[in-house]
């Protein structure tokens, strides 16, 4: 699958935003005392990490057009 440079930049931007979101959720989880909120944030962080891996595959398995 070939990506344009614009598509590659879009993927890279989204990966960076997901990394920042994961860091934020993990930071909030570490100071949160409510177990339900902690659980929700952990789940969200794991989901984002999974999505991040999926996007990263597109970058590593492509050629630029």
Overview of this protein structure:
Helix 1 packs antiparallel against helix 2. With 65 residues, the protein is mainly alpha-helical. The chain is elongated and about 45 Å long. Strands 1-2 form a two-stranded parallel sheet.
List its traits:
65 residues; mainly alpha; two-stranded parallel sheet; 2 helices; 82% helix; elongated
- The fraction of residues assigned to DSSP E strands is 5-15%
Strand order of the largest sheet: 1-2
Summing up helix and strand content along with how strands pair, one would put the structural category as mainly alpha
The count of β-strands is 2
Please state the average pLDDT score.
Answer: 90
- Low-pLDDT sequence parts: none
Shape: elongated
Distance between the termini: 9 Å
Order of helices and strands: EHHE
List the SSEs and their pairings:
Blueprint: E1 2-3, H1 5-31, H2 35-60, E2 63-64
Parallel strand pairs: 1-2
Helix pairs in contact: 1-2
């Amino acid at each position: 699958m070939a990506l344009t440079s614009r598509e590659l930049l879009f993927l890279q931007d989204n990966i960076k935003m997901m990394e920042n979101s994961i860091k934020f959720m993990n930071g909030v989880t570490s100071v949160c005392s409510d177990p339900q909120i902690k659980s929700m944030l952990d789940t969200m962080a794991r989901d984002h990490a999974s999505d991040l891996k999926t996007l990263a595959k597109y970058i590593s398995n492509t050629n630029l057009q």
